[in-house]
């Protein structure tokens, strides 16, 4: 797998490559070229040239490309989903779900002529008109994580392109094929060569993007330490940066909640995609006296989950790499050592797969306390921790004290409590009886606190804002009455 530079696969020989695995079999299925800083420079230069024309392509023609891309992606979504499953490991239905969520952002971007409309005021001063326009930034970089190899690039790429920018996309080196396949669809849809470049790589490529003078903005999604680094380095180099980071999402269950619904939700949101979602629920906060019943309900449901190859009838696939599986498994030991109650041990289980895949079954801890590593760290795997609290207030304080603020959910049948929660909780995305409150494309996606550095969330109108700059034009068409010298600051008259 190589880069896509100026509309064509790169033909050079990479000095460094990275392995790509099928996590369900443990087999190494390919190698991805890792870009040098020089190659990133070539991609940015080509993108910059393409931007100079693309920025002035009419909205009508841009929109035609977007609609064509939307149709192609819709027609080929199963192929893209299969690539996601082959390199990420998530089950096919889940992979298809992520492609569909990405598709929705492309659909939103089809409305770009309306979204880019400026304002106009006639006679702001006598015979003076003022209007605003939004213009593209230039070359923008998109750097994405392994866990949504199709969707996360699509949170940004369609909007950035629709706004008239050129994009250099750096997908995760762990599962680059989906992004490359989607980039091929853009070309097929009629996007001029160079407007979308794909460079594969690791820190070297990211650093080259963060420091390149012609990269004007960076959209990053990944873990918190890297997000913070990307934000600090990018802004220090004068770029506009939105850097979405990690998460530790809590689901608060009040005693009046429908406990069956809550147990279903905890299992779906805790173990879907093997817990490798930034919106996964990793902490269940049970307000007494319902914890025993909730833990029993969740345990029953976990016993029915099938873990195995994502192309088979599995509910949950493997983890992305062997190292990550081992790291997640190490938290099971750490939880036991810290004194949490291990209710379900994911290391014991049968996996429906051939070979030596990176599997770990779903794991449940009860009696978790906020000082334990299973609570403090983002594990990013199928490990759900139950924290028992005595009241709503205790649960809310726990959530608000957490350094992450990506998503949270409340389960209750009390409208007043739900209303209070949505007002008081310090988290960017809130679900009320919805365990994974992922905003739809026309709302914006993003957390608070250590889950997002920068002030713009992804997609929706904030995305359009992020990828454009405002300009205000004041105009007067001269006639003889406008003559004369006056050095005073102009007054509105
Ligand atoms: P990661 O931070 O390891 O990698 C993300 C990107 O940064 C990749 O493209 C990678 O090549 C690059 N990168 C890695 N290390 C780097 C370094 N030292 N310097 C510069 N670039 C570097 O994240 P990941 O493991 O691929 O993805 C999982 C993480 O992403 C989790 O923490 C998850 O919560 C987070 N995530 C957040 C959101 C969100 O919306 N907030 C969405 C999806 C994933």
UniProtKB/TrEMBL annotation:
This enzyme's EC code(s):
1.2.1.27
Question: Which residue intervals make up region (Disordered)?
Answer: 1-23
Keyword flag rRNA processing:
no
Alphabetized SUPFAM superfamilies for the sequence: ALDH-like
Among CDD domains, the record links this protein to: ALDH_F6_MMSDH
What's a Pfam family in this record? Aldedh
Q: Which UniProt keywords apply?
A: NAD, Oxidoreductase
- The keyword Transport appears for this protein: no
Q: Which domain of life is it from?
A: Bacteria
Gene3D superfamilies hit by this protein = Aldehyde Dehydrogenase, Chain A, domain 1, Aldehyde Dehydrogenase, Chain A, domain 2
| Transmembrane intervals | none
Its EC top class is: oxidoreductase
PROSITE patterns according to UniProt = ALDEHYDE_DEHYDR_CYS
Q: Which residues form the Aldehyde dehydrogenase domain?
A: 13-473
NCBIfam families documented for this protein: MMSDH
PANTHER family according to UniProt: MALONATE-SEMIALDEHYDE DEHYDROGENASE
Listed name of the protein: methylmalonate-semialdehyde dehydrogenase (CoA acylating)
Q: What does the record give as the organism's lineage? A: Bacteria, Bacillati, Actinomycetota, Actinomycetes, Kitasatosporales
């Amino acid at each position: 797998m190589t880069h896509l530079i100026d509309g064509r696969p790169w033909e050079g020989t990479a000095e460094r490559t990275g392995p790509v695995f099928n996590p369900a079999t443990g087999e190494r299925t390919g190698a991805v070229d890792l870009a040098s800083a020089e190659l990133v420079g070539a991609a940015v230069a080509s993108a910059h040239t393409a931007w100079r024309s693309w920025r002035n392509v009419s909205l009508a023609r841009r929109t035609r490309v977007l609609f064509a891309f939307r149709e192609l992606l819709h027609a080929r979504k199963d192929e893209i989903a299969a690539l996601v499953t082959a390199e990420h490991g998530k089950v096919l239905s889940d992979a298809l779900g992520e492609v569909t969520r990405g598709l929705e952002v492309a659909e939103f971007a089809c409305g770009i002529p309306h979204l880019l409309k400026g304002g106009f005021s006639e006679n702001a001063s006598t015979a003076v008109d003022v209007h605003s326009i939004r213009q593209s930034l230039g070359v923008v970089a998109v750097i994405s994580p392994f866990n949504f190899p199709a969707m996360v690039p699509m949170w940004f790429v369609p909007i950035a392109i629709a706004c008239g920018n050129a994009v250099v996309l750096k997908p995760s080196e762990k599962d680059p094929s989906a992004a490359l396949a989607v980039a091929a669809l853009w070309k097929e849809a009629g996007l001029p060569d160079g407007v979308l470049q794909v460079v594969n790589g690791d820190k070297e490529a990211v650093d080259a993007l963060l420091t390149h003078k012609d990269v004007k903005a960076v959209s990053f999604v990944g873990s918190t330490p890297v997000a913070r680094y990307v934000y600090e380095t990018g802004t220090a180099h004068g770029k506009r940066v939105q850097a979405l980071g990690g998460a530790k999402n809590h689901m608060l269950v009040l005693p009046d909640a429908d406990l069956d619904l809550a147990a279903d939700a905890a299992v779906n949101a805790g173990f879907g995609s093997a817990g490798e979602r930034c919106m996964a629920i990793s902490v269940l906060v049970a307000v007494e006296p319902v914890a025993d019943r909730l833990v029993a309900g969740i345990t029953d449901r976990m016993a029915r989950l099938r873990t195995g190859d994502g192309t088979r009838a599995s509910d949950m696939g493997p983890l992305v790499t062997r190292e990550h599986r081992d790291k997640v498994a190490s938290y099971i030991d750490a939880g036991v050592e810290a004194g949490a109650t291990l209710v379900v041990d994911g290391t014991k289980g049968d996996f429906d797969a051939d070979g030596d895949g990176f599997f770990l079954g779903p794991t449940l801890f009860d009696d978790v306390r906020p000082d334990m590593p299973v609570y403090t760290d983002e594990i990013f795997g199928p490990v759900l921790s139950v924290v028992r609290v005595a009241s709503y207030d205790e649960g809310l304080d726990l959530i608000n004290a957490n350094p992450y603020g990506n998503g949270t959910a409340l389960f209750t049948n009390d409208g007043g409590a739900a209303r209070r929660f949505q007002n008081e909780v310090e988290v960017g995305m809130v679900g009320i009886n919805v365990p994974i409150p992922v905003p739809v494309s026309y709302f914006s996606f993003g957390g608070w606190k250590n889950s997002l550095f920068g002030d713009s969330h992804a997609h929706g109108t904030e995305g359009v804002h992020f990828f454009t700059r405002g300009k205000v034009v004041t105009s007067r068409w001269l006639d003889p009455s406008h003559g004369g010298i006056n050095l005073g600051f102009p007054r509105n008259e």
